[in-house]
Design brief:
Layout: H1 2-28, E1 33-49, E2 52-67, H2 90-119, E3 121-131, E4 134-136, E5 139-140, H3 142-146, E6 153-157, E7 160-161, H4 165-173, E8 179-186, E9 189-196, E10 198-200, E11 207-210, E12 213-220, H5 224-249, H6 252-260, H7 277-290, H8 292-311, H9 318-331, H10 341-364
Antiparallel strand pairs: 1-2, 3-12, 4-5, 6-7, 6-8, 8-9, 10-11
Helix pairs in contact: 1-2, 1-7, 1-8, 2-5, 2-8, 2-9, 5-8, 7-8, 7-10
């Protein structure tokens, strides 16, 4: 349960950091911020400091900072006109609307960097962890036929000395159907055996050499530069994976399937299932039981997902505000926000649909890792 509580607190902190990015950027660029709230709907609690009201609202599905003049139709005190969003230069608008996304990406990087630097990475070794007994019913695997055992350390295959497991895979795959000599260490003693590699991969069916062993693993420490590189690579994989998932969710047939959850159907495919804060707490609880590293990685995913979602060029998301500012900069024409109201309504309705479906599913069909 501790993992779930930490997840809930962390998500609140991430939202707070996101909105703080907007608030601080607005103050730094001379804009007037009138509200800073976590949540939406009716006020639960608030206080005023200076010209800004800070507080918490009932629906815990995000937060917002209200900046004077973000809407062309908003009535602004003439004394504050030069402090409105709409009167500022393009670069200042960009800094304000993209600051929250930037901080979420930075938080994701910091979490991943700390995870890799503190705990290292898991590497496959050339020591055999498991030997597949069969490739098909009654057909022994090449490894079992040759007499390989768990605990054997592969030193060379077909005369190629092995530096790591990836090299072993390359050698095996490149020799379909061939008889190869395998030099290994067993119980501290060198040995050599002969194995006839399979010609087809038993799962993919592709023409490739196949032995039928699984490697052992070890945890290796990494330096800060390697940790930084791995963090960037992980963020990129999370971004692309989340974008692909979002693409699947927004297909018409997927939206119909999700809508079915609101009328009693809970058999929604896992690859299009949205997750609510309730589900995130459930996942966090389970992830923490497996290990702290899993919880840290989950929180990094939350940050990157928040950044990606808010970056979408759809009004009224941050990316939508940036798209409007960019259009105005390139064309020199002011956008009539009233024309974007239908887009904003569709975006809000979609968010409500996904949020409601996620809550229903997380209650009636809790996520199990």
């Amino acid at each position: 349960m501790l993992g779930g509580i930490l997840t809930a607190l962390a998500i609140s902190v991430f939202i707070l950091i996101h909105e703080a990015g907007h608030y601080l950027a607005a103050k730094a660029t001379g804009m007037k911020a009138t509200e800073f709230f976590l949540g939406f709907g009716p006020r639960i609690w608030s206080f005023r400091r200076g010209e800004t009201e800070f507080g918490v609202k009932m629906l815990p599905f995000g937060g917002y900072v209200r900046i004077a003049g973000m809407n062309d139709r908003e009535q602004v005190d003439p004394a504050d006109l030069d402090r409105t969003y709409r009167e500022k230069e393009f670069w200042k608008k960009s800094v304000v609307v993209l600051s929250g996304v930037t901080l979420n990406m930075l938080m994701g990087f910091v979490l991943l960097f700390g995870l890799f630097w503190a705990s290292g990475i898991v590497e496959s070794t050339t020591t055999v962890a498991r030997v597949s007994p069969e490739v098909a019913e009654g057909v022994a695997s090449p490894a079992a036929e040759a007499g390989l055992r768990p605990g054997d350390t592969l030193a060379a295959i077909d005369g190629v000395e092995l530096a790591d497991w990836n090299q072993a895979v390359e050698v095996i795959v490149s020799r379909p159907g061939r008889s190869v000599r395998i030099d290994l260490i067993r119980d501290g003693q060198p040995r050599s055996i002969t194995a006839v590699l399979g010609s087809y991969h038993p799962i993919t069916g592709e023409v490739a050499g196949f032995l039928g062993v699984s490697p052992g693993s070890r945890r290796a420490q990494v330096g800060p530069l390697t940790a930084a590189r791995l963090a960037v690579q992980s963020e990129w994989r999370i971004l692309t994976g989340t974008l692909q998932a979002l693409g699947r969710i927004l297909r018409p047939e997927s939206l119909i399937e999700l809508g079915g959850a609101l009328v009693g159907r809970s058999d929604v495919s896992d690859d299009i299932r949205p997750v609510s804060p309730i589900g995130m707490v459930q996942i966090g609880t389970q992830a923490a039981r497996v290990g702290v590293g899993n919880l840290v990685f989950l929180l990094a995913v939350v940050n990157v997902t928040l950044a990606l979602f808010n970056s979408l060029p759809l009004y009224p998301l941050d990316g939508g505000h940036f798209a409007v500012a960019l259009y105005e900069k390139l064309t020199g024409r002011r956008v009539d926000i009233r024309r974007l109201i239908p887009v904003a309504v569709l975006v809000v309705l979609l968010m409500l649909l996904l949020g409601l479906v996620a809550v229903v599913l997380d209650i009636v069909d809790p996520i199990a890792l």
